[in-house]
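Title: Request for sanity check on Aldehyde dehydrogenase EutE prediction

Description:
We are preparing a figure and want to confirm that the structure record we downloaded matches what your pipeline produces today. Could someone re-run it with the sequence below and paste the raw structure tokens into this thread? We only need the token string, no images.
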Amino acid sequence: MQFDESIIRNVVAQVLAEVGKAPPVTSGFKGRYGIFDCADEAVRAAREAFEKLSERTIEDRKRIIDHIRRISIDQKVELGTMEMNETKIGKLAHKIEKLELLGRKTPGVEFLRSEVYSGDHGLAVIEHAPFGVIGCITPVTHSLPTITGNAVNMIAGGNTLVVNPHPGGKKVAAEGVRRFNKAIYDDLGIDNLICVIAEPTLESADLIFHHRDVAMICVTGGPAVARAALNSGKKAVVAGPGNPPVVVDETADLDRAARSIIQGGGYDNNLLCIAEKEVFVVNSVFDELMRAMERAGAVRLNSSEIDRLTSVAITEVGEPGKTKQVAAKEFIGQDAAVLARAAGKNISSDVELVFGETDEQNPFVPVEQMMPFIPFVRCHDVDEAIQKAKYYEHGFRHTAIIHSNNVRNMSKMGRVMDTTLFVKNGPSPAALGVGGEGYISFSIATPTGEGVTTPLTFTRERRCSLIDDLCILGHPAKG
């Protein structure tokens, strides 16, 4: 009796794959443009794409990234509108602007660098190599912008990525990824450099976290997903929570401070993790700052209105005896006019921010509320303001802001806060190069220490040493 050897080989391969002793056969993902229902298939496709990308030049990486930039900029209105319609949080103008900012200002291959050590014993070159496939979790607050920034950073470093987006922003995530991949494939013939799970679940996230072909994890989200990433057993870059405080001392330019607080705290209805969340003001300038806020266009709520807003906008979650206060979902990212209406006040839809005086016990002070209401707390002096700022930042070491013309006060707060981002005399987005110097990313890794991510964040060092040669200065070492 004769046997078809190909049938035998296929059966053996299938059995070995089922017991985990052979890698699954992967092919046939061309034309998917990064859209997958199965997380395992998405990772396998991203692995295939990584192998192809590894054969390409740095110049090819730049061409790939240029397509992502171009689409993010040229199609910002359509994609930003799509994100606004799907998530229903934030502001349309800022959804559009964020895509342009990430397209223009996210660092790419120009951030890559090599280090060289030359001496008596030869030459050592340190280069930055990719990890491979990176698993990503992205938030509903900035669904496609976060993917855009991550894709530019990660592909510049030579990696591919698999994204498990927040379910609330999955449609715009998939459409953006589809457009990116199609443009890249049409130009360079590589598909699935960015893969996205079309119907993301906790199970798909868990599979990505523990898949053997995922070399690294990058998450942008709340404490639960951050803990899951850190427990994955893989290298993790974690963008964690923040509750950025503002200190205003007696030397500050109050009108400038007011404009900055409104610009940062009102941006995209306070959805940014770096956005101003609570303000601690030296008593001697407190009343004048409140007037400056009104001059700058913010609307002040009185104490009874704040009480009404607090009662509906802050809620408790958890089991009895283990509850904690959080922002009520229906108010996150809503317009200032919506918050004012809940407080019993009618204001213009053009108002960017509502604010008012509270004590530090008001839940809006400790809670990362992500809505355009900011509480202002009186403090005896700048030292008290800084100490309260440190306490209510909760040790996240994320972002802090001061308005002052006293260099010693700035220095004192910087040392005490020890935050990843520290802004002086400007709105919080200036820390990401928006009205300030620097570059942008929406993955700001505070718990794991990488800070504002760049292509180098997603690379590993490789050292190549040549002993006793190619040192052309001086005399070589003997022996």
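Thanks, this matches our download. The chain has 15 helices and 20 strands.
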